Amino acid sequence: MTRKKSIATRRAESQAAAARAAEIRRAQERQERRRRTLVVTAVGVAVLAIVLVLGYLVQSSRDTTGRAAATPAGAVGGYAVPAGPSSAPHTVVVYEDFMCPYCGQFEAATRAGLQKQVDAGKVRLEYHVLNFLDRSSTTDYSTRAANALAVVLDRSGPAVAKKFHDLLYEHQPQEGSAGLSDAQLVDYAVQAGAARSAVQTGIQNRTYEQWVKNVTDQASKDGVNGTPTVKIDGRTVTYRTVAELAAKVRKAVGA
Amino acid sequence: MNRVQLFGVGLGLLARVLVGTVWVVAGVLKLPAPEDNVRVVRAYDLLPEGIVPVVGHGLPVLEILVGLCLLLGLLTRVAAGMSMLLLVAFVVGVGSAWARGLSIECGCFGGGAGPAANAQAKYPWEIARDLGLLALSAWLVVRPRTPWAVDNRLLPPEPVPSRESMQGRETRA
Fold it and tell me: How many domains does chain A have?
């Protein structure tokens, strides 16, 4: 009896020992798996982090926003194309993009009234021309048109620039098209009263391209997230439709 | 493989392909115009100006990396976790723009900062889409191992499901 019992006991003991050994082995395997997972993950994350930083640096270097730019003579506050006397009782600041169809509608609905008030010395207009709709044309029309306006302002003064601005909206190209060609921009500048020889080079060479980028960036920093945005005497006009915006602007300046 | 396991594998693969593709597309579309992207980030008016350009320039790259990792099945759990973080941030961003009555293009797939007349109507759909992607990403965080994944070559193999390991969840890699 005692011998039998001792065999059974020994068997049980050896089974228990084997089970313990297996458990330790499994625990070691688990630990090893965990260690390898951790190492692979750490190395992978480190490599990806380097790629991320490189990609960030590439993107950052491609963005020239804010770099020093030649400012066209006559620009007010560094960023705006003015029309009318600075002593006028009302100042209307307009943020627009030459490619933006709503801006075209706004211009068509307010131009005559605003021009009348400008001529009467009652309104000062300040245009901020942005280029954020460059991808809405196949030739960066927003940048080219805004640059052309800056060139005309610089070489021919604000009166000619205002006429040129109005001509560009009267002949606004379709969204998604190639826009007006550089030659057409020069022609309209001449029609507005600029000397061809004075503006041609600047329009073709995009002399004020970086300035246009900075105007767009400054508008974004000033909280302008869409066009047209209109500020009358410092207050942004809220609107749902362009017709509503135009009506509010006309009313505010008595046009 | 029983039906439940098959469903899990199928869902994991679907999540990887779907979420991964969305990230890659979203990132690639934002690459051409870094300055646009900075303005979109700024338009949400949630981050201090100092880090707005960093996010604007780095986010598209991060999106592409997360997407590629998911498509390749490379560091799936980490990538899916990052995907969740980004999606939560986007839901918060779009939700707050909605709540504040801002009318901005989400810029989710590039562009943006344009006239967004119908932005208010779009916000709920953008949030719904992000929540769907968030759920799929969460699934991958819980069950990162799927077939046709680089992880299967790099990481230790899943333990053979013995009776013991079926009882204890700790053995899951």
Answer: 2
